[in-house]
């Protein structure tokens, strides 16, 4: 044993790849003004004109999570546009097609739309823009896309982001002070995927340091990551007033 080593030093802990449960339950979809209309439509697939609906919005607003939750709840199969080729087989109940505006083969999408219509099966298309604006070469496909009811999803509001961050920490059983969460929210990109990645990085950092998630730890763990930006007060004292706990949006 080396002399002079402090007897109270805590052994360094190494982060293990612990499995984290990712829920796709409908009740775990947090609602605010940005997604309320889309969630309302997803709750009533029997009212979709022609049994077909599209939800669209920019990257990072939770479209894929919403689509997975809907497919899991309804028992519909989940497909991805870039992998859609050939003649898709019929599916009992319905089909969710994520990244539908990036299909590998346009005839495959046209066949899927026609097949679902003929069999009376539901079809949910997910993309970044409304289907009427997708750049497609097949006239028949363009016509069917223009006839598809579409509802947009906007950027999440502050309350929704705060509730999501709190839930992500809770899922990993991390207790993080409300003021530290507020500090993080002011510096992280306003995207669900970015919040999830930030929480994963902080979880690993806390395990490695055998310490709680604090402002200094978070700054060190996220400093070189593109999803995190420093604020104007980052050279100030580490003491700051505690932020009030954010209101939780309604859970449907």
UniProtKB/TrEMBL annotation:
Segments of this protein annotated with the region Disordered: 232-252
SUPFAM superfamilies reported in the protein's UniProt record: P-loop containing nucleoside triphosphate hydrolases (SSF52540)
Biological processes per GO annotation: DNA replication initiation
Domain Hda lid positions: 167-222
Name of the molecule in the record: Hda lid domain-containing protein
Single GO cellular component term: plasma membrane
A GO term, aspect molecular function: DNA replication origin binding
Organism: Neoroseomonas soli
């Amino acid at each position: 044993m080396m002399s002079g080593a402090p007897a109270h030093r805590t052994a360094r802990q190494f982060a293990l790849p612990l499995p984290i449960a990712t829920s796709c339950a409908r009740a775990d979809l947090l609602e605010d003004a940005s997604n309320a209309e889309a969630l309302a439509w997803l709750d009533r697939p029997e009212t979709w004109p022609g049994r077909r609906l599209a939800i669209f919005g920019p990257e990072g607003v939770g479209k894929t999570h919403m689509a997975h939750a809907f497919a899991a709840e309804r028992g519909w199969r989940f497909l991805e546009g870039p992998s859609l080729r050939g003649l898709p087989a019929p599916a009992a109940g319905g089909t969710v097609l994520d990244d539908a505006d990036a299909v590998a083969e346009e005839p495959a999408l046209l066949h899927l739309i026609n097949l679902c219509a003929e069999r009376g099966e539901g079809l949910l298309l997910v993309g970044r823009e409304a289907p009427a604006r997708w750049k497609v070469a097949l006239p028949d496909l363009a016509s069917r896309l223009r006839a598809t009811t579409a509802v947009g999803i906007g950027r999440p509001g502050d309350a929704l982001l705060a509730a999501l961050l709190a839930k992500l920490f809770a899922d990993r059983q991390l207790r993080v002070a409300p003021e530290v969460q507020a500090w993080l929210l002011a510096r992280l990109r306003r995207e669900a995927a970015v919040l999830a990645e930030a929480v994963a990085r902080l979880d690993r950092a806390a395990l490695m340091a055998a310490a709680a998630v604090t402002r200094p730890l978070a700054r060190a763990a996220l400093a070189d990551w593109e999803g995190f930006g420093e604020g104007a007060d980052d050279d100030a004292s580490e003491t700051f007033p505690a932020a009030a706990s954010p209101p939780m949006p309604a859970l449907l």
